[in-house]
Amino acid sequence: MPDTLPLGSTIGIIGGGQLGRMLSVAASRLGFRCHIFEPGAEPPAGHVADKVTTAVYEDEAALRMFGESVDVITYEFENIPTAALDVLQDSAPIFPGREALRVSQDRLTEKTFLQGLGLKTAPFADVTDAASLAAAITDIGTPSILKTRRFGYDGKGQVRINAHSDAAQALTDIQAAPAILEGFVDFSDEVSVIAARGMDGAVAAFDPGENVHSDGILRTTTVPARLSPSQRSDAVLIAAKVLNALEYVGVLGVELFVTPHGLIVNEIAPRVHNSGHWTQNGCTVDQFEQHIRAVAGWPLGDGTRHADVVMENLIGDDMNRVPDLAKTTDTALHLYGKAENKPGRKMGHVNHIKRV
Amino acid sequence: MPDTLPLGSTIGIIGGGQLGRMLSVAASRLGFRCHIFEPGAEPPAGHVADKVTTAVYEDEAALRMFGESVDVITYEFENIPTAALDVLQDSAPIFPGREALRVSQDRLTEKTFLQGLGLKTAPFADVTDAASLAAAITDIGTPSILKTRRFGYDGKGQVRINAHSDAAQALTDIQAAPAILEGFVDFSDEVSVIAARGMDGAVAAFDPGENVHSDGILRTTTVPARLSPSQRSDAVLIAAKVLNALEYVGVLGVELFVTPHGLIVNEIAPRVHNSGHWTQNGCTVDQFEQHIRAVAGWPLGDGTRHADVVMENLIGDDMNRVPDLAKTTDTALHLYGKAENKPGRKMGHVNHIKRV
What we know:
Dna Ligase, domain 1; 3 domains; 17 strands
């Protein structure tokens, strides 16, 4: 067992959104302080953090000062520029490690990595130009989706292709960025597994949750997911395989499609994950504390599910429902304190709890 | 129903210890920011607060700046000097209100108030000098306890009197401060009720907890308490009577002695209370969120108990047990991030959970 981070240490968190905010709160429960690095002004995580550095990822001096003020670095956000990581890693260890970031920052690398582990993914092809896109459409068929290899989230950087004739416009839409063409998967359900690996190599998974997306944004996660016992165990084994292959330290989200031919990995996220927010009211140790435990070298905690939960994101105008939700029993609100609301923006979530 | 505090508002919290820390975390869940006012350096609450003002209660300018930067003021600590409150109340409303502070800051006023409500207290007498102490000892008998009227906590400002001959030394020990002599109560158990009253006058109580003290410091609180149904309802009715009499807004702790002749009120605390920490892992809405809801004009939340809990304070060397506790299932750690540990200091607590 490696050394644990001494109580009172400071954890650096890259990214100051709601995930960083809830990580900081979890860290406080274990006696740690957090220092947030975030380019945007007034980050929600800053309301509950000991320190905030507001600087761009290109500001080497700021990165260095941040790195030197913390004892370990983690992140809420996987698209951290490589050059920034190069600067940071001189100052403090980064968990999850660089390999997890390298793999998950690029859809082509990620899918190739997953297939290399013997896991199933959607059919995909590398797209670099009009010719390779045309070949990919022929190979994979339509409908299919052109996705930029990097910097996509919440459905951004994605264009649907229904016919060869959509190809030129699609390339223009993604500004001819390096991409993959991904085939559609005929799935009955989307589920995700939130799993963790400690510095001692121990692995623990929360119960799989069943996800409903709309417009590319997660709307609800329900636990337990409607999975057979063998699907449930497959889901957890897939997550464990990924964690071990990456010698991962921290919490990882794995999104899966449920198909008649088994579970297909949609994508992995090397961080706490929106579909794991139900754990805040369904487990003694939630995904945020589990992540902090892992990156602090603590033993993983007790993530046994003790309640059925429906997690519902509060997006844009959903916030108008807060006064009613505040009056509802067995309902836990988690608001993010974001200054500005707009359509499609995640402003909070609510866990509807059913005691089991 | 009064206006609720708009999302994103700032709550001022007087006192930066562990109670302020956990209030600030709860406020963040509801989308509020907190600003801590605390005379001591490096307050634990500051690690999870948006702002911290470090200043003494005599610093009028600092109080005024603090008051003007917040939308509502609450506190983790009832012994706030009256002059400081006079300054603060010009800037923002203070909840719980001045009357709750006036009553609870002075043991004589508090006991007189409680008896005025028809509630039972230990026998007591006003002590101002040697003559009144002698009369009080004759009246109340021995053993009894001389307690300063103001600024006592965790057993401080208290001297036991076993005989008339102890009187002179006892007065010296309390530096001849205004005091009361309190008779011993022959009780079987100590319990407490953590109850809340909203701005709309609604009252809600958490299940009573059973407390074990040692050396004047709370060691454990166990829920459910061993109380008969009628004792349980008496306990809650006593809390409600106090809340309504004070037109209280916020969470109140009421400590009670269980005797063959009914429940006797030991003391009231106009704030979240150590004996309510079990609610963090036993209820959907814990005492901290309940307090924030009340002072923000929100409806009170669902405080139904969904688990049996033993809350155990981690005091001084108890912190050596943290590595083992971190490995234990159904165990939730809550550490306070205090820089310095010393004997008798509350460094954290742990909730041992038994699902029901």
